[in-house]
Amino acid sequence: MKYLPWFGLGILRNMPTLNLFTNVPVDAVIASDILKDSTKAVAKIIGKPESYVMILINGGVPIAFAGTEVPAAYGELISIGGLGPSVNGKLSSTIAEILQTKLSIDASRFYIKFYDVQRPFFGFNGSTF
């Protein structure tokens, strides 16, 4: 396990990244709200500081779900540890709620895939963790 002492008391870096794609156009104000809400949610649920979380929003992406182009979304959450059945369920419901509130995407039109990766498979600052 790699600890980074300059973050105080040896906090383990986790770097969760949430990548969201939706066929709904996302304006700058809504994007900012989604970024803030998602950052807080991911950090709280996984148990890591917000300063470690990255969120990406890709709006207006052509997506067909169940044969229609009704508003839908797909997400991928990548993390070094911190994921598991209970956490994944909480993340799925919370992100779905944010998308419902901000973009009117029904939870039944949202898939999210979770990746719990090993340190050598996640890069940062010209190296890997």
Explain this structure to me?
The chain has helices spanning 28-46, 85-103, and strands at 17-22, 54-58, 73-79, 110-116, 123-124, 127-128. The protein has 129 residues and is an alpha/beta fold. The chain has a four-stranded mixed beta sheet, covered by helices on one side. Strands 5-6 form a two-stranded antiparallel ribbon. Helix 1 (28-46) packs antiparallel against helix 2 (85-103). The model is unreliable at 1-12 (pLDDT under 50).
Give the spatial strand order of the biggest sheet: 2-1-3-4
In terms of quaternary structure, the protein is single chain
| Low-pLDDT residue spans | 1-12
| Helix and strand composition category | alpha/beta
Question: Quick summary of this structure?
Answer:
The protein is an alpha/beta fold and 129 residues long. The protein has two helices and six strands.
Which terms summarize this structure?
single chain; two-stranded antiparallel ribbon; 129 residues; alpha/beta
List the helices and strands and how they pair.
Blueprint: E1 17-22, H1 28-46, E2 54-58, E3 73-79, H2 85-103, E4 110-116, E5 123-124, E6 127-128
Parallel strand pairs: 1-2, 3-4
Antiparallel strand pairs: 1-3, 5-6
Helix pairs in contact: 1-2
